[in-house]
Amino acid sequence: MRKKHFALFALINMTFLPLASASSDYAVDKELVLNAKGSATAYLCDIPPTAQGSRQALCFDIPLYNMKTGGYIGTMTEAVADAIPDTGGGMQVTVTSTFRFSEWPSQPSLTTRVLGNAQPFLGGSESMTHLTGYYPSPGTNNIIAGSKRFRHASGSARESGAANLSYFQGQPGDQITFDLIWVIKLD
Asked: Distance between CA 8 and CA 24 in Å, rounded?
């Protein structure tokens, strides 16, 4: 009798534990490491007001991947406003990024805002023209909105990446190729 119970217990564990492990891909740790990667076409969209008062931005919908597993998990909308050119050929921009986790069961979203930089690429890849980035000061909370499991989220987001701005003139319809790595640390 004990052997039958043990065999049944072992069969149940072998059947259901892999399912539990698969669903753990959707678990949210205190740190999300995401990769927004691909080409996107600019369109105008509304955003929450920036520090400069802008309420519209050029937006790009970019496929979003889990950096740890490489799996597709949704879309990131990169909204770029308030571009200020610098003397070195780069620019500083207000970036409002909304991460939509459409492949997660509850389909939550998370929105961050950073004052990012794009600087000309001085070597390396021929497919990218600019390096991009933002690194938060300690204690920064740049999560401005969220839904479902991220409804009351706070924390910091940083971004490092590259973009091909060869065909970008700052107008709707322009295209940019992105390869951005986001690290979001939740409080």
From this structure: 24
Q: 166 lies in a domain?
A: yes
| Coil, strand or helix at 166 | coil
Identify the three-state secondary structure at position 179.
strand
pLDDT digits (tens, 9 = 90+) for 24-43: 334 467 899 999 999 999 99
Residue labelled with tokens 């023209």: 129
The DSSP call for residue 94 is E
Residue segments in the chain with a per-residue pLDDT below the cut of 70: 1-28
| 65 within domain boundaries | yes
* 116-133 pLDDT, tens digit each: 999 998 877 789 999 999
Residue 122 structural domain: 29-186
